[in-house]
């Protein structure tokens, strides 16, 4: 049997990705108890670089927030963000007037399209116990024909996302059909909206001392399995340590044998868009000229401005999970 492992590489921050994905980052932060105002009950003065997003030397990071962890308002154009919050909460606000609080397994899918500003803050809601945050943010590119679509904000609530329980594994199906299990419909202008593109985002958890078979896909896709937590695994005769990415031959089933700990994976898969990519920070276009135009337009218009009172806007502490859409529709969850 052919070994499906094409290449392995150590995981950095952010993770390396293949077309149609642009960027993926994994945060696991052991935030302390809250201080009553949704910030940490701890000093920020002792050796913390508040602008360092991915500093692995700290158990928790404030990112660019000054009092509450997170990313105050910033622009995006030309791609999509898929934000998976397995633990903790994210407060979203944007220039469309949309807002939300999501977490504990929820997923936000946001198409930036022609341009949007948003903030992503991580309120520490618990004052009596610690506030761990486990979060993935995945950037999915848009083809040239979709770079200027209207921005779109969609919530995939945890209780609605398909979870597949197999003998030795649990698979959270964020995007892409898993065997016969259909996902929630993605954002309408997404590269993932066409099933022929075989975009898949699966969070896979495999029990210790067991075997799991990842089903094959078609030859037309790029397929990377990110082994982000656990003990060593074996795929065929190849031993792979945690914190490694695994580029797979999509035409082969992948037989994974786990070690003495439960293994946790993120699978990103999709048909390549196959177009030139020009990137500058939060702008992703096809040419450098388009990047310059995007920057100039943002300077002039702020992509619609900022309708919220603070750059690091957060919602009321006792507010539950909710989504407020640009059209005024409000969805509240328990």
Automatic annotation (TrEMBL):
<feature type="domain" description="Pirin N-terminal">
    <location>
        <begin position="62"/>
        <end position="140"/>
    </location>
</feature>
<dbReference type="Pfam" id="PF02678">
    <property type="entry name" value="Pirin"/>
</dbReference>
<protein>
    <recommendedName>
        <fullName>Pirin</fullName>
    </recommendedName>
</protein>
<dbReference type="InterPro" id="IPR012093">
    <property type="entry name" value="Pirin"/>
</dbReference>
<dbReference type="InterPro" id="IPR011051">
    <property type="entry name" value="RmlC_Cupin_sf"/>
</dbReference>
<feature type="domain" description="Pirin C-terminal">
    <location>
        <begin position="202"/>
        <end position="304"/>
    </location>
</feature>
<dbReference type="InterPro" id="IPR014710">
    <property type="entry name" value="RmlC-like_jellyroll"/>
</dbReference>
<comment type="similarity">
    <text>Belongs to the pirin family.</text>
</comment>
<dbReference type="InterPro" id="IPR008778">
    <property type="entry name" value="Pirin_C_dom"/>
</dbReference>
<dbReference type="Pfam" id="PF05726">
    <property type="entry name" value="Pirin_C"/>
</dbReference>
<dbReference type="InterPro" id="IPR003829">
    <property type="entry name" value="Pirin_N_dom"/>
</dbReference>
């Amino acid at each position: 049997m052919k070994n499906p492992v094409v290449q392995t590489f150590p995981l950095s921050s952010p993770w390396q990705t293949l077309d149609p994905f642009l960027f993926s980052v994994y945060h696991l932060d052991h935030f302390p108890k809250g201080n009553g105002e949704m910030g940490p009950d701890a000093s920020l003065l002792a050796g913390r670089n508040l602008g360092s997003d991915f500093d692995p030397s700290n158990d928790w990071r404030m990112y660019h927030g000054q009092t509450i962890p997170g990313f105050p308002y910033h622009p995006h154009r030309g791609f999509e963000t898929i934000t998976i919050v397995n633990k903790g909460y994210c407060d979203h606000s944007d220039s469309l007037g949309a807002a939300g609080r999501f977490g504990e397994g929820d997923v936000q899918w946001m198409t930036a399209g022609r341009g949007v500003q948003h903030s992503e803050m991580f309120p520490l809601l618990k004052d009596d116990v610690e506030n761990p945050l486990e979060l993935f943010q995945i950037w999915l590119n848009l083809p040239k024909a979709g770079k200027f679509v209207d921005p779109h904000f969609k919530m995939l609530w945890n209780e609605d996302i398909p979870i597949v329980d197999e003998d030795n594994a649990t698979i959270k199906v964020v995007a892409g059909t898993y065997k016969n299990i259909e996902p929630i419909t993605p954002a309408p202008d997404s590269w993932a909206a066409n099933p022929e593109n075989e975009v898949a985002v699966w969070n896979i958890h495999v029990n210790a001392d067991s075997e799991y078979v990842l089903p094959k896909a078609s030859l037309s896709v790029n397929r990377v399995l990110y082994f982000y937590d656990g003990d060593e695994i074996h795929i065929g005769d190849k031993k792979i340590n945690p914190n490694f990415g695994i580029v797979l031959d999509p035409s082969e089933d992948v037989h994974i044998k786990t070690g003495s700990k439960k293994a946790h994976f993120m699978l990103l898969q999709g048909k390549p868009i196959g177009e030139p990519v020009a990137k500058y920070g939060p702008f992703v276009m096809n040419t450098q000229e388009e990047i310059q135009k995007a920057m100039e337009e943002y300077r002039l218009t702020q992509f619609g401005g900022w309708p919220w009172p603070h750059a690091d806007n957060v919602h009321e502490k006792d507010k539950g999970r909710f989504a407020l859409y640009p059209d005024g529709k409000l969805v509240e969850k328990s």
